[in-house]
Automatic annotation (TrEMBL):
It holds the Pfam family Alpha-amylase. Residues 12-428 form the Glycosyl hydrolase family 13 catalytic domain. This is Alpha-glucosidase C-terminal domain-containing protein. PANTHER family: ALPHA-AMYLASE FAMILY MEMBER (PTHR10357). The lineage of its organism: Bacteria, Bacillati, Bacillota, Clostridia, Lachnospirales. CDD domains: AmyAc_2. It comes from Anthropogastromicrobium aceti. SMART domains: Aamy.
Length: 511
């Protein structure tokens, strides 16, 4: 594993919406460079940036039309390299977003693949033998060229799936993983990775990493595929980090990823904590963390205890955290997010409680996700400091509701969410027990709105974390002698005779 991941705290940047520097209403690389000191001051030392490559932007850049060229709206490849250099100058790291599962229909590979005559790209995508044969249960593109076949789609209809083969081949058109087409796709994807790693990026967040091989019900084919890619990285770029959008750490870590995200879909029960009718972190205290904890423990065990599981504050696909949690609830949620193993990921703006912007028309295939992708709000200047463009030219409107949060306001207020997040990140980075690879032992699983408590440990220290989001006091039996309070929000716990009395709506870290 890349050594730098151990104390990494990530900040996810959706480049469209972070900082515009040329008044065209859309964020750019220079804007990110200009805000690196802000990110560093918050305490984050790593960045994940969403796709920034040439694309018709039918899915916000997750529909790549050229893997080797930065999208001109953000800047040039040279500007991107400058971003890498500026990140490194500050002792930080940056992951690009690799989209290996599909391209845009505009990609030259796909245009070649559409042709009836056989050519080197005929098998770069997955085609059935003729147009009347539809791939069972999967959407496909058909009837848009002379090629007689249906092409398997990976996500939206304009995102044809790249061909990595099938684990189980049942139809004549389903190629095995070791066929020429799938092998050529892997060679090309390795070339893409090498290109950006050589230029200075520090690794990749990998889009839909768990579904590359088709007809692969248990993921065994996709695991094997990534296992064949990892050795090239280990040899040529041993410090490169690979983080998967997979949502099943037991599989992805076995596949060779350093970390896997818990997602708002899949088996993790992540949504139980933050995004459901009664989230565990709501002060109503009607939610439960028990199913999450059970799944988390099992995944960790299967992943060999050391595998890193990332629990993000949110991302560009989920509702904003501040849509379901409010005020101090967010602070208690961050106390949890920033004290768990695996590197934390903060979605831009979550550190100031940026809100979901309701009732927007979809932008670039965002649909309901558009409200979570609105511009970062820096100050009370034009467009809240995001851009000097006229407001109607903005990529997505800013949150213009009263009391909409800004960095400027929160930096002036010592009780702000911003300061709480900053404090928690600093604490995490000071204590080895709290780092990504420290151990965790649960003492209380947050069943039925009860407190969540766990002991984080490294070779030299143990730290007890107790969070009680509910609006009621609670008592827990906790073994050990916890004397020193390292952090407290919402009131200090009282430790007496192996019992801990925990105030309502609080989080405590004890040593
Ligand atoms: C997951 C990405 O996070 C999402 O934004 C995108 O639409 C799909 N994958 C398809 O690439
Ligand atoms: Ca711009």
């Amino acid at each position: 594993m890349a050594e730098w991941l151990k104390d990494a705290v990530f900040y996810e940047i959706y480049p469209q919406s972070f900082q515009d520097t040329n008044a065209d209403g859309i964020g750019d690389f220079q804007g990110i460079i200009d805000r690196l000191d802000y990110i560093k001051e918050l305490g984050c030392n790593a960045i994940w940036m969403n796709p920034c490559f040439e694309s018709p932007f039918g899915d916000a850049g997750y529909d790549v039309s050229d893997y080797y060229t930065a999208a001109p709206r953000y800047g040039t490849n040279g500007d991107l390299k400058r971003l890498f250099d500026e990140v490194h100058k500050r002792g930080m790291h940056i992951l690009l977003d690799l989209v290996p599962g599909h391209t845009s229909v505009e990609h030259p590979w796909f245009k070649e693949s559409l042709k009836a005559q056989k050519n080197p790209y005929t098998d770069r995508y997955i085609w059935t033998d003729n147009i009347w044969e539809q791939p069972e249960g999967i959407a496909s593109i058909k009837g848009i060229s002379d090629r007689d076949g249906c092409c398997v789609v990976n996500f939206f209809s304009h995102q044809p799936a790249l061909n990595y083969g099938h684990y189980i081949c049942e139809r004549s058109w389903q190629q095995p993983m070791d066929a020429e087409g799938p092998k050529a796709t892997i060679v090309e994807m390795e070339k893409v990775m090498r290109f950006w790693l050589q230029m200075g990026c520090d690794g990749f967040r990998v889009d839909m990493a768990g579904s590359l091989v088709k007809n692969d019900p248990d993921g065994l084919g996709t695991i094997r595929l990534w296992q064949t890619i990892r050795p090239f990285l280990d040899k040529e770029f041993p410090e490169a980090a690979m983080v998967s959008e997979w949502g099943e750490p037991d599989k992805s870590l076995q596949a060779g990823f350093d970390m896997d995200f818990l997602l708002h879909f899949g088996p993790s029960h992540y949504n139980d904590l933050f995004r459901c009718e009664e989230p565990y972190f709501s002060a109503r205290g009607k939610g439960s963390a028990a199913a999450f904890v059970k799944n988390y423990k099992e995944s960790r065990k299967k992943a060999g205890e050391k595998g890193l599981i990332c629990i993000p504050s949110g991302n560009h696909d989920m509702d904003r955290l501040a849509r379901t949690l409010h005020g101090d609830e967010l602070k208690v949620a961050f106390a949890f997010l920033l004290t768990m193993p695996g590197a934390p990921f903060i979605y831009y703006g979550d550190e100031i409680g940026l809100r979901y912007v309701e009732n927007l028309v979809s932008v670039e295939g965002g649909y309901s996700r558009t409200g979570s992708r609105s511009p970062m709000q820096w100050n009370h200047g034009v467009n809240l400091g995001f851009s000097n463009a006229s407001p109607e030219k903005l990529y997505i409107p800013t949150d213009d509701k009263p009391n909409s949060p800004t960095v400027e306001d929160q930096m002036k207020d010592p009780n702000s969410l911003y300061y709480e997040v900053k404090k928690l990140i600093a604490l995490r980075r000071e204590h080895s027990a709290l780092l990504s690879d420290g151990d965790i032992e649960f003492v209380s699983d947050g069943a039925d709105g009860s407190p969540l408590a766990y002991i984080r440990s490294s070779a030299d220290e143990k730290i007890l974390v107790v969070v009680n989001p509910a609006d009621r006091e609670a008592v827990l039996n906790v073994p050990g002698d916890w004397k020193e309070t390292l952090y407290e929000i919402g009131g200090a716990v009282v430790v007496e005779d192996g019992k801990i009395v925990i105030p309502s709506k609080s989080a405590n870290l004890l040593r």
